[in-house]
Each structure stands twice: as C-alpha cells, then as structure tokens.
Amino acid sequence: MMLRLVLVMIAIWCEITWAKPSGGGTGGSGKDHTGKRLSVLGFYGLGGVNPSDINNISSAASTVPPLQSISTLSYFGGGIGYQLSRKFQTRLTYEKQEAKNLVTATTPSVTDAGYTISWTELWAEINYNLTQSRFVYAYLGAGFGYPIESHLTANLSSRTEYDAEKTLGYKGQAGFGILLGKYVSIFFQTEFQSLASGDVKDSGGTALNQSNSSTHAKLDMSGPKAHVGMAIHF
User: Fold this and answer.
1) Domain tally for the chain?
2) CA-based angle 136:138:140, to the nearest 5?
3) How far apart are CA 54 and CA 135, in angstroms?
4) What are the pLDDT digits (tens) for 44-60?
5) Angle of CA points 176, 180, 183, to nearest 5°
6) What is the pLDDT of residue 134?
7) What angle do CA 77, 169, 126 make, to 5 degrees?
C-alpha cells in the first residue's frame, strides 16, 4: 500500500508539472487562492495514540503510583508549500511529536518517572484543493514520511535512552483555511498517520523486550491527529 501511494503521488506530480495549461484559464497558473505560489507554515496540534508495547511494559513497572497507559500526544511543526496549479499543492513539512506517562513516584523515589516517546518526522505531501475563494479554502491530501528521530526515554530506578529502527510512515489528511488578508491565512487540519518503528534498542544495541516476553518492543505513534496553524503566502 505504501508503494502504491508513492507511485500515485509521483504520477500526479509529473502530470501537473509537465501538463500544458488549457485555454486562457487560470487552472495551470501555479498560483493559489491568494494569487501566490509559495507559502511558509507553522502549526501546533494534539492526537490520540496507543504505543501498545510501551504500555505493556509500563503496566508491569513496579512504581507507586502505577504508570498509566500513554493515550495522547502533542506536536508542533512547520514547512513550506509550493503551488503546482490552482488545484494541486506540494508540501515539505516536519513534525516534532511527544507522548509520555510520567508521574512523581514514591517507589522508586523519582520525579517524572515513566516513559517518554520523542518522534520527529519529515513529510512529503500533496494536497488537492476542493474549493477556494477570496475568503476560504478546503483540501484533501496524502503524504509519506521518514523519521529523523524515534527515541524512547525510560526513567525508573535508573535512566535509559533507546533509539528505534526507522521505517517509512504515511498519512491521509483534510483541512480548511480562512484568509486574513492577501498574505496570511489560518488553517485547521485533521489527519490519520501510520507511524511504527522497528526494534527499540539501547546505546549498546540491546533490544528492549515486551513485559514477560522475548518479543522485541517497537514504538507506535499511529493514530488520529489534528492541528491549527498559520500560513504566510508570497
């Protein structure tokens, strides 16, 4: 499925890039709803997540109070967009995500005891504009990404740092924006991401196992996410 998504995105890119604009219309003008070609954006969001392997390990940890399952995350990011036509836009973005289940533990006596997942993903995206006017725009899109960081910190009786083997991720998304003038818009985007790592290993290369098992643990940051952001068009 990942390969199919990549091939579809490449095909769309090629068709839009080398297609001749029709008639005298603006469909192939390469400008967006603001009349601009480039955009710079930043955003902040929240999401749902279930890293089941880490939650399994957390449930077996002997802390007082006990560690809860990780179920939410926060993230921020930014990127640049390039308008291929009035209908298609490509984006290169990054996201810094964090999910944790930290508590102030009395057993062991540790402040911020628990697990913290830090994940930074680089995305290549393509969006299709469903509608656009002088005031609003809406779009559907998809993307694939690769992590530059997929890290786990375990802070219990001792502190251990782990890195996860990196794998490709993909996502689908939908959003809408409101223009605040000729150069600025705010936008809201919801998406579902598939982000799963390979084996989680410490600095010595030893894999972290699931609780009471020889199965190697993995990080999973898949789930629904939503963010609000601002874009500057020029």
Assistant:
1) 1
2) 170
3) 45
4) 999 999 999 999 999 99
5) 100
6) 85
7) 65
Phi/psi of residue 9, nearest 5 degrees = -65, -40
Q: Quote the distance between the C-alpha of residue 202 and its chain's center.
A: 24
DSSP class of residue 167?
-
Token readout for 113 is 């005891």
- Which range of residues forms the domain containing residue 69? 2-233
For position 213, what pLDDT does the model report? Answer: 87
Place of tokens 């150069």: 183
Q: Please report the DSSP string for 36-99 in residue order.
A: -SEEEEEEEEEEE---HHHHHHHHT---BSPPPPP-EEEEEEEEEEEESSSSEEEEEEEEEEEE
Determine contact, residues 220/53, Cβ cutoff 8 Å. Answer: yes
**Residue 20, both tokens:** 């001749």
Q: Which positions of the chain have pLDDT values less than 70?
A: 1-35
Q: What is the H or E stretch that residue 105 is in?
A: strand 103-105
Alpha carbon distances (Å) from 108 to 56, 62, 103, 134: 19, 8, 11, 59
3-state secondary structure of 52: helix
Q: What b/e readout covers 161-180, taking b as 16+ CB neighbours within 10 angstroms?
A: ebbbeebebbbebebbbebe
Q: Give CA 190 to chain center in angstroms.
A: 11
Instruction: Supply the pLDDT for residue 30.
Output: 65
Question: What CATH number has the domain bearing residue 214?
Answer: 2.40.160.20
